[in-house]
């Protein structure tokens, strides 16, 4: 692939992957004003975030087989069309119940932008380049937590919260045009892929049975769930507990997200000397240690605003290593089922993220402790899955080597 064309393809894939984060982050500063305008509470508005997560989980599992059956671009464009209509519905919502419903539909459309890029990276680039390309996607993806809350906060302050969803709809229209014009079809339709429920479930079962996928997808999803716990808890922690304004919250969000962007590009450089597996293990372990300090600080109450931002910056910077390496390693064994594998990978991330965000609300006690606790538990479980998975894969590899050696001995006789 030519350099210029390669750059355009990576840019479009990165923008597609950023649709969901923008849809999540851009309206977060507007929770108080949404609650006021729709005559409800912030807790009720938060259900629109939960419905989005649920929609993404369900949608990814559906669109994965569709991408394998009908090619990549057609389901992608249909999903963007649904996203545009649902975004307009969100902007016109007369009640919080309507907003929750339209957010679910918006997620069903947006989820294709999460699944298709991973599958297309697997289609278009050699496996040894996947982690590097995904790191470039994270660079684009990482802009969303920096721009989205900041832009969202200023839009809400000047024009009200509904303008956020109008802007998202317009952006999706422009992105659809770019997909039609410049994004190549990386894999054509395959009539051999069945869309019967039993066949789809069998396909997902085959993906899960691959120990490499189970290990790295599970570890990556659990570690990434700490980010969702942060998303769920940070509006209250910063705007209510520490008293920052909507604009200041957007700035803090941007500073913390800058660490994720920088680390994703540092990951690209470190891949010259270390394997994806080595970097993933080291970063999840580092994340666990930082999370432990964060929890002790919130429990003891000695963390001020700046020290809290600093620890969250370091903690979430680890995500710049976790996502590209876990995704590349999980997707590596697949070619024919890349769409299904990508969908299952994304669904696992959203399921874990949804649970993490829900637990933050469930154990809410007016402090930052629930957020910090869930963040620590997520990376602790991710590290445990990774270490156990490594042992299992090493054991399987030794058995395969022993079986091969036995076969060679028998062939000599």
UniProtKB/TrEMBL annotation:
- A GO CC term? plasma membrane
The species this protein belongs to is Spirosoma validum
Record family assignment: Belongs to the major facilitator superfamily. Bcr/CmlA family.
Alphabetical list of InterPro entries matching this protein:
Efflux_drug-R_Bcr/CmlA (IPR004812), MFS (IPR011701), MFS_dom (IPR020846), MFS_trans_sf (IPR036259)
CDD domains assigned to the protein according to its UniProt record, in alphabetical order: MFS_MdfA_MDR_like (cd17320)
Q: Which domain of life is it from?
A: Bacteria
Name of this chain's protein: Multidrug effflux MFS transporter
Q: Which residues cross the membrane?
A: 45-67, 74-94, 100-121, 133-157, 163-183, 213-237, 249-267, 279-297, 303-323, 343-364, 370-389
Query: What is the topology of this protein in the membrane according to its UniProt annotation?
Result: Multi-pass membrane protein
Ordered alphabetically, the record's keywords are: Cell membrane, Membrane, Transmembrane, Transmembrane helix, Transport
Show where the Major facilitator superfamily (MFS) profile domain sits: 9-394
Where does it reside? Cell membrane
Give GO BP annotations, semicolon-separated: xenobiotic detoxification by transmembrane export across the plasma membrane
Q: What GO MF annotations does this protein's record show?
A: xenobiotic transmembrane transporter activity
**Xref: PROSITE patterns:** MFS
């Amino acid at each position: 692939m030519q350099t210029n064309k390669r750059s355009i393809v990576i840019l479009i894939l990165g923008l597609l992957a950023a649709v969901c984060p923008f849809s999540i982050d851009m309206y977060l500063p507007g929770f108080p004003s949404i609650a006021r305008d729709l005559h409800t509470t912030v807790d009720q508005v938060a259900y629109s975030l939960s419905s989005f997560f649920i929609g993404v989980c369900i949608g990814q599992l559906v669109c994965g087989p569709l991408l394998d059956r009908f090619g990549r671009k057609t389901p992608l464009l249909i999903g963007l069309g649904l996203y545009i209509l649902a975004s307009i519905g969100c902007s016109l919502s007369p009640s919080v119940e309507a907003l929750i419903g339209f957010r679910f539909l918006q997620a069903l459309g947006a989820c294709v932008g999460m699944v298709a890029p991973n599958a297309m990276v697997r289609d278009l680039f050699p496996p040894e380049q996947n982690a590097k390309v995904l790191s470039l996607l994270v660079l684009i993806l990482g802009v969303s937590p920096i721009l989205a809350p900041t832009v969202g906060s200023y839009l809400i302050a000047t024009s009200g919260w509904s303008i956020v969803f109008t802007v998202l709809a317009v952006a999706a229209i422009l992105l659809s045009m770019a997909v039609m014009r410049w994004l190549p079809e990386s894999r054509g339709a395959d009539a051999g892929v069945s869309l019967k429920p039993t066949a789809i479930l069998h396909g997902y079962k085959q993906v899960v049975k691959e120990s490499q996928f189970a290990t790295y997808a599970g570890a990556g999803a659990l570690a990434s769930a700490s980010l969702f716990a942060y998303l769920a808890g940070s509006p209250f922690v910063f705007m209510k507990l520490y008293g920052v304004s909507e604009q200041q919250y957007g700035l803090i969000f941007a500073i913390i997200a800058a660490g994720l962007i920088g680390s994703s590009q540092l990951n690209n450089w470190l891949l010259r000397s270390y394997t994806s597996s080595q970097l993933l293990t080291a970063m999840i372990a580092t994340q666990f240690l930082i999370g432990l300090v964060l929890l002790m600080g919130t429990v003891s109450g000695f963390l001020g605003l700046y020290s809290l931002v600093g620890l969250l910056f370091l903690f979430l910077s680890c995500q710049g290593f976790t996502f590209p390496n876990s995704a590349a390693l999980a997707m590596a064994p697949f070619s024919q089922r890349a769409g299904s594998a990508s969908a299952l990978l994304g669904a696992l991330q959203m399921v874990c993220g949804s649970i993490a965000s829900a637990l933050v609300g469930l154990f809410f006690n007016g402090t930052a402790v629930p957020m910090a606790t869930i963040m620590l538990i997520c990376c602790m479980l991710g590290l445990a899955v990774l270490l156990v998975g490594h042992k299992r894969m090493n054991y399987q590899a030794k058995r395969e080597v022993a079986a091969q050696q036995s076969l060679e001995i028998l062939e000599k006789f």
